[in-house]
Design a protein that fits this description.
The chain is 36% helix and 14% strand. By secondary structure, the protein is of the alpha+beta class. The protein has a four-stranded antiparallel sheet, with helices on one face. The longest helix is centred in the N-terminal third of the chain and has 44 residues.
Length: 214
């Protein structure tokens, strides 16, 4: 039969080494915490997951942007190939046919009702994007000032920083085709890096010389 003294002897201070009154000290608890490896995988995942997800989203977003850009450039080339012939399809204008080609070749990813398509005619390929020539009166500052003489290349009666004249051009003329549209980004994670207000403005251009049509 066990006595109180026997129980006290087995459960006495000699069985409680490393503790204070049966409770672990703060240093003991910290040591146990640092040695514990339970849940380490979850913690590592929680730290790495946001970076991984943001990287994947960024790669997908960039890939889609490049895909749409390639589509728009290819569509513009196809439209210009049609337009350089000077052919006007029955029942529609050349401009309407150009928009139709652009819509078909962008497979519905670009809303042509929201896109801006422009055509500018230039004397030569070297003149694309250049200002109309002007006389820089003294003191010369390298920029056009009101009243200075200039060559009205595009015939609109005023000096322009781009000499291109609006239109599809005539036989043998140089025409620059440009399409510009806003592309809605899929995720807000990368929109601050690639656009503004969740959208990215895309622009594609191609310059061609019209055939000697009549």
């Amino acid at each position: 039969m066990q006595t109180y003294q026997n129980v006290k002897a087995r459960c006495g201070p000699q069985q409680m080494s490393g503790t204070h009154g049966g409770r672990f000290s703060l240093s003991d608890r910290l040591k146990r915490l640092f040695r514990c490896r339970k849940g380490i995988t979850v913690i590592e995942f929680a730290i790495a997951a946001p970076v991984v997800f943001a990287t994947v989203a960024g790669v997908l977003e960039l890939a889609l942007v490049m895909f749409v850009m390639t589509l728009s450039e290819g569509a513009l080339r196809e439209a210009s190939r049609f337009s350089i012939t000077g052919f006007t399809p029955p029942g529609m204008t050349r401009e309407e046919r150009i928009l139709e080609i652009l819509c078909d070749h962008t497979i519905g990813l670009v809303d042509m009702t929201e896109a801006t398509v422009t055509y500018k005619v230039y004397p030569s390929f070297n003149d694309i994007g250049k200002p109309e020539p002007f006389t820089d009166n003294a003191p010369a500052n390298g920029t056009y000032d009101a009243g200075e003489a200039f060559q009205d290349i595009n015939g609109n009666g005023q000096w322009d920083p781009d000499m291109g004249a609006a239109g599809l051009g005539g036989p043998g003329e140089i025409v620059l085709y440009t399409i510009e549209f806003d592309w809605a980004l899929m995720t807000p994670l990368v929109s601050p890096l690639m656009g503004t207000d969740g959208k990215m403005t895309m622009t594609s251009s191609v310059a061609v010389k019209n055939e000697p049509f009549s």
